[in-house]
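dude i think i finally got it to work??
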Amino acid sequence: MARELERLRRRILKSDGATIDELYGLEPVFEPGAGPGAAGLQPVEFVAVLCPWCGERLETRVDLSSSDASYIEDCEVCCRPIEFSIERAADAALLSVGVRRLD
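look at this
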């Protein structure tokens, strides 16, 4: 019994984040200050675009960890809905962001 407890204690002490995530069925998360992700990418990117309604420049936050290829956000100036289309490379790097009016 003592031998099994000692083996378990050593296993727990040398566990890293990936082992713990796997043990509990958790998805990896971005840890602020831990540097870029495994692929050298940041999970969020800010992109400047022009509103297709009023022409004002605005910045949008693109979540690179999301599987969605598009999302809707209101313009910060005119409050009209804009559809953002995201194109990513095979390694999840951001290739382009398209905008269009929703009328």
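The longest strand covers residues 81-88.
im so relieved honestly
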